[in-house]
Amino acid sequence: MSKLTSPTAYERFLIAGHIDLKIAIRRTLNWQPFNGVSDVDKSLVSTIVSELASNIIKYAQSGYVELRLYEFIGRLDVEVIATDKGPGIADIEQAMQDYFSSGGTLGLGLSGVKRIANSFEIQSVLGQGTTVLARKRINIDPSKQVLMPKTLSHLSKLEPWDPVRSSVSDVLKSRWVNPFEIGLRIRPYPGQIDSGDQVLALPVEEGYLLVIVDATGHGYEAHKVALMLCAAVREIASSNLPYIMNSLYQLATGTIGAAVGLAFFNINKRTVCYEGIGNTSFIVFRDKKWRAVSRDGVLGQRLPTFSEQSTSFNPGDMAIMFTDGLSESLINEKATLFYLQDANTIANHLIEVYGKQHDDASCMILKWNR
Amino acid sequence: MDKEIKKLKDKFNIISHDIELVREAGQLLKGFMPAFIESWYEWLSVREEFSIFFGSNIGNLKRVQAQQNDYWKAFFEANINDSYIKERRYIGQMHARINLPNDIYFAGMSVALQLWMDGLRAIQPKPDHLDDMARSLSKHIFFDAFLVIDEITRIHNYRLAESSKVIMEMSTPVTPIWEGILLLPLLGILDSSRTQDIMNKTLLKISETRSKVFILDISGVASVDTAVANQLIKITKATQLMGCEAIISGISPAIARTIVELGINVGEVKTTSTLRDAFEIALKIINVHIAH
Amino acid sequence: MYNVSRSGVSMSVMKDRLFVTIQGDLVQETLSVLRTDLLERTQVDRINAVIFDLSAVAVLDLTEFNMLHQTVLMIKLMGAETIFIGLNPGIVAFLVLAGADLSGMNTASDLDDVDRILTKLKNH
Q1: R_g of chain C, CA atoms, integer Å
Q2: Does C14 touch chain A (CB under 8 A)?
C-alpha cells in the first residue's frame, strides 16, 4: 500500500465561473501557508491555478481546483489538482502542444504549466472528465520558515517526497474523484492504553464493510476480545452480514462478550444496510434522518433473531456508527454541525467533545461528498 | 571503544550484577518467547502505523518477527560489546530510513517491558530476586532504547544539516552597486532550481530598486555548457522583461571558446570579460559619464 | 486626446501614443474586443506607439498572454511599436519559465522610461 503523507495544508475551490476564477487566484496568492514564500513562487503557483481553472470553465463549465501543501524543512511541495466532469480530452498529446503549433485553435496553455511544474500529469476519460495534477517544489530559507504545528508534531513521520511513487491514480483515490470518506476514532477509557472498542472499515465486493465492536467492560481483557473479533471479521469480510454476525457469535461464546454493529455500504446500489447487537448505534444523516435498530443482547450470550435493515445512501449523505461511549442524543443533535469537515476531523471532534469519560468511546463516519 | 562502552554503562548504572540477572531472566523466559512475540504483535496490529508499515505484506511481517526474535535473544545474552551496540544502531538506521515515529518505538519498548515482567511474574514457582531482575531488565531496556533513538536523532540532524547546506549554497546576494545598477556574482553550479531562486531574488530587487542594468558575473561558475547557457539566457530574458538590461561579465577565454564551439546563441545580451568593463557599460546606459 | 473605459480596460491617447491600462479582469471576450479596438485606433489615429500598463494585473497565464502577444504582433505589422510597463516579477518569471514567445516584446520599467526605450527602438 503506498503511503500518502497527508497534506500539511489544504484548500479547495469550486470553479463555476469567472468570479470563482478570480477568487481562486486571489486566495492562492494570499494563502496563509505561503507565508515566507517569495512573491515570484506564489505567483507561479497562482498562475498554474489560473491556467487550470480557466480550462475548467472553458471546457467543462464547472469543476474543482485543490491545493495541497506538504511542508518540509527548507522546502514546500505544492500540488495543484484540477478536476472536472467535462467532455474529456480526446488527444492529450495534441492538446499539450504549444499554442501556435496546434493550428491556432486556442491551446490549453498546459504546455506552459508543464514547463513550470516539477511534475505534471493528466488523466482524462472521454465523456467522464479530466484530472490535471501539477506539482511545484518551492525552496524556502529554513531560517525564515515558521513551521506549521502539524509539521512540528509529525516531523519524524514525514517521508522525503518521491514524485515517482505518488501518482495521479493515488490522487484519484483520495477525496475528490473517489468522494467517499471514512473517518474513525477509537479512544480508550481515559487513563488506559487499551480500548475495548474497535472499529474497522474493509473494502469488499461492491463497497465497504463497516464494523464496530464494543467488548464488555474495558481494559486489557476487553481489548483482547475486541481484537479477536476484528481479526475474525477480516478473514470472513463480505457483504453477508447475517453470516458474519453468526460467526462472530460463535467465536464470542465463552468470552466476556461484546456489542457489535455491522454495516455494508453498497456503492453501486447506493444503499447501506445494518445489523447490530447490544449498545451500538447507526444513524444516517440526510434530509430524513434514519436510525437503525440494534437488537438487545450480548454477542456470545444470547442470539436474537436479526432482520437486516437497509436504507438509501446518496451523495451528500453521512452515516455515523458509534458505541455507547458517545451520547446518542447529543450525536443526533450535533453531528450535522460538522458536516462540512472531512470524516476524520468529524470523528475526532465527536469523540473529544461528546465522548463519555467513564467508558471506551469510538465512532466511524461514512461520508459521501457531493 | 571499550572505554566508551564502559562509560556508557556507567552512565546507565549497569553493573555486572545487572547483566547476570538479565541473563538469568533470559533463561527463565526462554519458553515464553513465542507468546511474547504474539502478544506484542497483537498490540502493534491495532496501531494505525501497523497497516502503514506492513499492510497486507505477510512475508515482510514474518521477516520482521524473526528479526525481533534475534533481537531479544541478544538482549538476554547481554554481551554489551561493540557488536551489540552496532546492532542497535543499525535498528536506529532502519527506523530512520522508514521514518518510524518515535512514539510508536517507545510505546513498543514499554509494552515489551510490561510483557516480559508479566512473563516473569507468571512463572511458578516464584523465582528468587524477582524484583531485582525486574530492575535490571528496566535498566537494559532504557539502555537499548537510548542507542536506537540516539542513532535516529543523529540521522535526523544530519538530514537537517544537509538541507540547510543546500540552501546556503543557493543563497544569492543581489546587490545594488550604483544607483540603478544591480550586481550578482554567481558562484558554483547553475541548474534550473538555482535559476528560479535567482529569478526570485533578482526580479524582486529590480522592481524594488527600479534598476536599469543588471550585471551577472559568471567568473565563479564552474563550467558553462549548453544547459548552463540556457539558464543564463532565461535569466537575462526575465530581467529584460522587467525593463532592465542585462550584462554578463566574467567571460574567460575558455568560456568564450566553449560558447562559440557549442553554437550557443546569447542573442542581444551584452557580454564582457571583466566586471570593470561591464560596470563601465552600465554607467553609460544610465547616462553617467566617467571622466578619466 | 481622449479617454475610453470599458470593462477592465481603459485607454487614452496622447499625440501619437496610445496608453492601455488593464485593470486585471482579462476575460477572453475583453481581450478580443480590445484587439479590434486597438488595431482600429492604431490606423485611424495614426498611432506610433502603444503602451500597455499591466501594473494592476497580479497574475497572467499563458493563454491570456498569447492573446496579448498576438495583438502585439499585429500592431507591429501596422507600423507601431508596443511597450509593456508594470509586469510584476511573478508574471515575468512565469513567462520566461513557461517558454512563452517573447518576440517583439519591449518593456520599460516605468512611464518615464518609455521615452528612453522608444528612442532606442527608433535608432535600431
Answers
A1: 14
A2: no
In angstroms, what CA-CA distances link C50 with B5, B246, C58, C105, C106? 80, 24, 21, 12, 11
- The cell 534550473 sits on which residue? B192
ipTM: 0.88
Chain B interface includes C85 (CB < 8 A): yes
- Which residues of chain C from 43 to 82 reach within 8 Å of chain A, CB to CB? 58-64, 66
**Does any CB of chain B come closer than 8 Å to the CB of residue A329?**
no
The alpha-carbon gap from C96 to the nearest alpha carbon of chain B, in Å, equals 6
A102 at the C interface (CB within 8 A)? Answer: no
C-alpha cell at B89: 544502531
Task: Please answer whether residues A132 and A121 qualify as being in contact, where contact means their C-beta atoms are separated by less than 8 angstroms.
Answer: yes
Peptide bond connecting A242 to the previous residue in cis, omega within 30 degrees of 0: no
Q: In which element (H, E) is residue A28 found? A: helix A18-29
CA proximity to A79, closest of A69, A87, A71: A69
Q: Does C99 touch chain B (CB under 8 A)?
A: no
Beta bridge partners of A295: A277
Q: How far apart are CA C67 and CA C22, in angstroms?
A: 14
Q: What gap in Å lies between CA B191 and CA C55, rounded to an integer? A: 30
Contact A73 B201 (CB under 8 A): no
Q: How far is C33 from chain B (nearest CA, A)?
A: 25
Long-range interactions of A244-250: CB distance < 8 A, separation 24+: A244/A209, A245/A275, A245/A277, A245/A306, A246/A303, A248/A299, A249/A299, A249/A300, A249/A303
Give B160's contacts in chain A (Cβ within 8 Å): 73
Phi, psi of B194 (to 5 degrees): -65, -40
What distance in Å separates the CA atoms of residue B245 and residue B249, rounded to the nearest whole number? Answer: 13
Mean pLDDT of the A339-353 span: 78
| pLDDT(B1) > 60 | yes
pLDDT digits (tens, 9 = 90+) for C58-116: 999 888 898 899 899 999 998 899 999 999 999 999 999 998 888 889 999 888 888 88
Burial of B134 (0-12, 13-18, 19+ CB in 10 A): middle
Flag whether residue C97 sits within 8 Å of chain B, measured between CB atoms: yes
Give the integer Cα–Cα distance in Å for B169 and B165: 6
**Are A212 and A274 a contacting pair, CB within 8 Å?**
no
What are the pLDDT digits (tens) for A90-128? 777 766 665 444 433 445 588 889 889 988 888 888 888
CA atoms of A20 and A37, how far apart (whole Å): 24
Does the distance separating the beta carbons of C93 and A40 come in below 8 Å? yes
One DSSP character per residue, A334-358 reads HGGGGTTS-HHHHHHHHHHHHB-TT
Scanning every residue of chain A, which has its alpha carbon at the shortest distance from the alpha carbon of C90? A40
Does the pLDDT at position B61 exceed 80? no
Instruction: Give the pLDDT score at B24.
Output: 92
On the question of pLDDT at B114 being above 90, the answer is yes
Length of chain B: 292
Q: What is the pLDDT of residue A106?
A: 40
* pLDDT at residue B57 tops 70: no
